[in-house]
Every structure is written in C-alpha cells, then in structure tokens.
User: Which sequence fits this backbone?
C-alpha cells in the first residue's frame, strides 16, 4: 500500500468483509438458454447426450455463467470521499468448478482492495470487489472480480 | 468447434488461437436478457431509442454477454482445454448485428501448482479492427500420456 493509498478516505471496516448476496437455482433450461443466446457451440453446454458421456455426467454451464448474476448485486456504499464520476474498469472471472443443472449457488461479495493511480488526466481511485459462488455442497465454483474507477470531472 | 485434441506439448509462445467469428443478433440479446432476468421494459441492450437517449449510437450487447462470447475463443478451440481465468477490459460498446472477430495469442507457458497452463492475450474486434474487449485468458491443457 502506498502513501497515496493511505490518504484515500473510505469506510475501511468494509475491507475483506463477506456480504451474503443471495442464492440462485440453476436449471437445465437456464444453462441451455445462456449457451444458445451467446452463440456457444460446444455440445458439453447444450447437448444432453454429450453431457452424459462427458466426465461430468451431464451438461454443465459455460465457464462465465456465474458472471450474469453479478451485475444485479447490490453492494454496500464504501463512502469514498473522492471524485464525482464512476466508471466500470474491468472484470475477471475464475472458473473453479463445474455448475450443473439442479445446483443451487450461494454468492458472497467483499471489498478486496481500494487503491489510487495517477495518470495524465489526474488521480483515479479504484475499488475492487470479489464475488464468490459456492454450490449446495459448499464447493467453490467461480470467483468474479470487478474493478470500478472513480475520478473527478476536472483533473486534481 | 475444433474437434481435435490439443495437448500442452502441442502449443508454444506466439501461437495463435482462433480466430472465431461471431455476430450477436437482436434475438440473441433478447434471449440472453430473459435468462439474465433483465427484461423489465426497454433498456440500452434491447432498445435503440433507449440506447440513444443514453448517448449510445445503438443498442449494445451486455458486458456479461461479451465476456461469455470472449470465452468461446477457448471453449471452441478443443475439447481438451479448460478455461481457468478470463480477465477483460471493456474498451468500447459492442453493437448488435455486426461481425466480431475473437483472436488470441499465447504469451506464456508453464506448470502452475502441478497444472500445465498457458496464458493468452485475447481480443474481440469489430469489423473495422477496433478492439471492443481486450484481456488475458489462463487455460489448462492436458499432457500426453
């Protein structure tokens, strides 16, 4: 953590604290519609026969499936005292385990990091949230990391 | 989908993955928003008028859909490979009904915690060759017996 980072004012008590954000019942129809709508052609995600003969014993969800649940997440306000423009900076999804029809996924999110960078247009503050998904057996299946940047309309 | 099995020994730094061509239709976006649970009224994803009112040129493809499409560079490559991680930055809006090209290039190769892996730089470009989405993929491959 740099000196610049320690100067950022926000609610630091939120760092690393898990917040439960809900559960999601996964159906075969959801998986197939997700795969079909995104143009997926791999039969492992679409075809029951291909799924049955695979190492998974059924179709599974495409690797970024859990990501669609993340955009509806309501997160705590970190009370960041900087900037007046927020932008989505990027996203990373880590595929840890298979998601099958009939699974129930439980999601938690936490504030992972807050840090500053200074570029040509001035200072920017990034906040990084990580949302984890586990199935009904407690096995982790995916982690989604999202970065948001806050900046001022006028460079400081 | 490329039906051929690809092994760790078959790939090297600088090898290209893809290209994969995709066009996202209006109908696909509507189907996606239904399974996504975002079908309450017109949105920037389904309505050109709503998109224009938000300063966008036309209706755009949702980010969650873009990252799913980007992953197909790997899922369409070979049945033997597994996408471990996909890290992306959205550079510009992806519009409906336009040709998109997915490309990848292997930039690293090694064994991480016993898992043979490669890293690929990945891009989604529009028909003008402008990158809409860029990123990095981590992919596991089996070794030959």
Assistant:
């Amino acid at each position: 953590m740099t000196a610049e980072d320690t100067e950022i004012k926000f609610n630091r008590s939120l760092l690393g604290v898990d917040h439960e954000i809900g559960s999601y019942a996964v159906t075969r129809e959801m998986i197939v519609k997700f795969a079909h709508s995104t143009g997926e052609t791999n039969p492992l995600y679409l075809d029951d026969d291909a799924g049955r003969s695979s190492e998974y014993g059924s179709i599974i969800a495409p690797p970024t499936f859990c990501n669609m649940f993340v955009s509806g997440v309501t997160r705590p306000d970190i009370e960041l005292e900087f900037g007046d423009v927020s932008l989505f900076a990027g996203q990373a999804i880590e595929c840890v385990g298979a998601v099958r029809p009939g699974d129930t996924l439980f999601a938690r999110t936490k504030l992972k990091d807050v840090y500053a960078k200074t570029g040509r247009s001035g200072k920017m503050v990034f906040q990084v949230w990580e949302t984890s998904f586990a199935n009904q057996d407690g096995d982790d299946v995916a982690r989604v990391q999202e970065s948001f940047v806050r900046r001022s309309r006028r460079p400081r | 989908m490329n039906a051929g099995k690809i092994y760790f020994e078959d790939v090297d730094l600088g090898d290209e993955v893809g290209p994969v061509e995709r066009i996202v239709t209006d109908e696909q976006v509507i189907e996606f928003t239904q399974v996504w649970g975002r079908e309450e009224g017109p949105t920037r994803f389904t309505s050109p008028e709503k998109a224009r009112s938000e300063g966008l040129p036309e209706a755009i493809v949702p980010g969650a859909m873009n990252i799913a499409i980007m992953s197909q560079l790997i899922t369409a490559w070979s049945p033997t490979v597994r996408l471990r991680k996909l890290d992306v930055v959205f550079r510009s809006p992806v519009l409906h009904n336009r040709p998109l090209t997915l490309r990848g290039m292997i930039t690293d190769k090694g064994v991480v915690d016993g898992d043979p892996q490669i890293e690929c730089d990945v891009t989604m470009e529009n028909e003008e060759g402008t990158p809409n989405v860029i990123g990095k993929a981590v992919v596991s491959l089996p070794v030959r017996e």
